[in-house]
Amino acid sequence: MPLELEEPPVFAFAAPDLSTCNKPRLLILWLLFAVVLLLLPVTLSADEARGHDLAERVYNRPDGDDVTTRGSMVLTERGGSPRTRSLIIYRQESGSGTVSTLIRFTDPPDIADTGLLTLDRAAGDTEQWVYLPALKRSRRISADRQGGRFVGSDFFYEDLRDRKVSMDRHTWLRSENLQGVQTEVLESIPVSASNSVYGKRVSWIHPTALVPLQIEYYEPGASKPFKRLTVERLERIQGYWTVTSSVMTDLQQNHETRLTNAVTRYDRGLPSSLFTKRALEDPSLEARSRP
Fold first, then answer.
1. What is the pLDDT of residues 193-250, one digit of tens each?
2. For residue 107, what are the contacts with CB-CB under 8 A and spacing of at least 6?
3. Arithmetic mean of pLDDT over the chain
4. What is the gyration radius of the CA atoms in the chain, in angstroms?
5. What pTM value is reported for the model?
6. Domain ranges of the chain
7. From 272's CA, which of 28, 101, 122, 147 has a CA 20 to 30 Å away?
8. Is the domain defined by 57-287 classed in CATH 2.50.20.10?
9. How far is residue 38's CA from residue 223's CA, in Å, rounded to a whole number?
């Protein structure tokens, strides 16, 4: 049942006749009253309130203090041969609310040791650093490159960030059957156009796992999606719902990137030193934590 909210009260008032007003105090009071009305919080509609609540529950679902996955990334282009890469992903959430992620490629040799470090602060700001072994140094990914393709895949740098609920306006759209599951469809539109390369995202949420089974990505102003993330396998590991196979598809270029987890381990007590530029630039330090 949709969340029922009362409609926001409607205020109607008339401005004083400035041509006849000879009391500055009255004018000041009227102006202050007008400012207060402008600053009043906007009451959400029932679907917006329901959407915001759903987004909060998805973001806050239990997923451990840290997680390590070992798996593969397969890039496929229509008419071309698949390119397979092996990688390890580490993720940790600190007590301060910072979410840290380190991705390290281990094979084939031409991409081995390439890494990406992402630090998502509780306040919403993000730092991303990519390490390129050929250059033997890391470089920071600037905000205007968040729409860049990560190592030629269909994942943008933005897709690999932790996106806070407050960065979007969320609206519940409908219930819909997807892959035999009665999902809740959620629309998320950036509060500020500068904080995302997408105009909006539409997600199909599993009602109990609270995991998006599908996400469609729209360019600003577009009526059709240009990318789609599809979950192929969802498992419960150590009590946590975990996506172990997913595909990101570029609907315009007929290109797709499949991520598959062969090993997933939660709550290993990963050291905070793993999520530093020093560990990013020295694979031997990160290798100690591999599963």
1. 999 999 999 999 999 999 999 999 999 999 999 999 999 999 999 999 999 999 999 9
2. 85, 86
3. 88
4. 23
5. 0.84
6. 13-42, 57-287
7. 147
8. yes
9. 32
